[in-house]
Amino acid sequence: MTASPRFALLPKQSQKGVRVVMAARKKAPAVRPVPPTDVGAHAHKIAEAVAKAWHGSYGSGRLDVPLSVVSTLAAAPQNDSHGNDNTDAMITWSPDDFFAFARMIWRAVIQERPEITALLYPLIAWIFEDADTELNSQACAVSRAALRARQLDLTGTDRRFDTDLLGTVLTVLRPASALKARGQFYTPACIAALLARMSDVEEHQAVEDPMVGTGGLFRAVAHVMRDVGRDPRTIQWVGCDIDELAVACATVNSMIWGLGRDIVFHVGDALTDDWKAAALAQRDKLSQLAADITRYRALFALLDGYPVRDSDART
Ligand SMILES: C[S@@+](CC[C@H](N)C(=O)[O-])C[C@H]1O[C@@H](n2cnc3c(N)ncnc32)[C@H](O)[C@@H]1O
């Protein structure tokens, strides 16, 4: 298994600032219930805690907020650089602290991976909207619930490769009737593992799931590849789903599970759309847009301070 990066979702150059945020809070008394040793049971425990905190405080069918809270926490490692338990520090965060952290994480992710911005948008858009004090404190309550259920012992360690926490949270949050109507019953991990072993995926191939959900089959394939010494980051992962939140979760999962950058995901109908071409076109368009923005920024920086001509000032 590969070693844990310090912040699973963050590029290296963005990690220094995160440590400052972590260290800025006073340490709270240790809260250390022992998490279940079975990783699937642990994921369920976190999902139940998140659902209870969210429905208890907000009570709405809106799922982007709790899912994005869990996704944001997935960026934090279990321990800081001195070996201190990050749960102790993060559980004392105010809603403003949590939002500062969330904005910093997702800004860094988007700067590093502009091509996945549209995929992440349904999950993280609300984080960049004008502050809604009540919503922010409810999101913070969800964060504390996930931390108390020891999320960082799962997503902040190599255990994150072994389960689909976001898929579990989405399933627990959604009413059973909605799951049934959408056919959203994700393949159990043991079956996914069996399918992955039978597929025997080699490096540099494409792996496609036209009804990808939160990407559980991709996780299983990556797991098997690592077991036999192959690198899943060499794979092109191609996935589609009509559920935009599931695709957003699959995108976050691709970072949590270290699937690499060759992600071709699409929100749409896999039965009728030319979805793969649409996914590739969107990815290219966003990469191009990000490159243009970088170029324009450099150009504006050059022009900044350049003396304004009289003719320009008049127009
Ligand atoms: C049974 S789940 C399987 C998810 C994933 N492949 C797995 O094995 O865990 C089926 C998924 O198909 C999606 N789905 C249903 N109809 C679809 C369609 N026409 N196009 C794309 N996705 C669809 C649902 O939203 C759901 O996430």
Structural write-up:
With 315 residues, this protein is mainly α. It has one domain (12-275). Helices cover 56% and strands 5% of the residues. The protein has helices spanning 15-24, 39-57, 64-73, 86-90, 95-112, 117-124, 133-148, 151-155, 165-173, 176-182, 189-199, 216-227, 244-256, 275-303, 310-314, and strands spanning 206-209, 236-241, 263-267. Strand 2 (236-241), helix 13 and strand 3 (263-267) form a beta-alpha-beta unit. The chain is globular, with a radius of gyration of 21 Å. It starts with 14 loop residues before the first helix and ends with a helix. Residues 1-5 have low confidence and may be disordered. Bound molecules: S-adenosylmethionine.
Quickly describe the structure:
The chain has 15 helices and 3 strands. The protein is mostly helical and 315 residues long. The longest helix is centred in the C-terminal third of the chain and has 29 residues, at 275-303.
Descriptive key words:
single chain, 315 residues, mainly alpha, three-stranded parallel beta sheet, 3 strands, 56% helix, 5% strand, disordered N terminus, binds S-adenosylmethionine
Q: Unreliable runs, pLDDT <50, ≥5 residues?
A: 1-5
Radius of gyration: 21 Å
Q: What topology, given as strand order, has the largest sheet?
A: 1-2-3
Structural class: mainly alpha
Number of strands: 3
Protein name: SAM-dependent methyltransferase
Organism: Kibdelosporangium philippinense
Domain DNA methylase adenine-specific: 178-277
GO molecular function, one term: methyltransferase activity
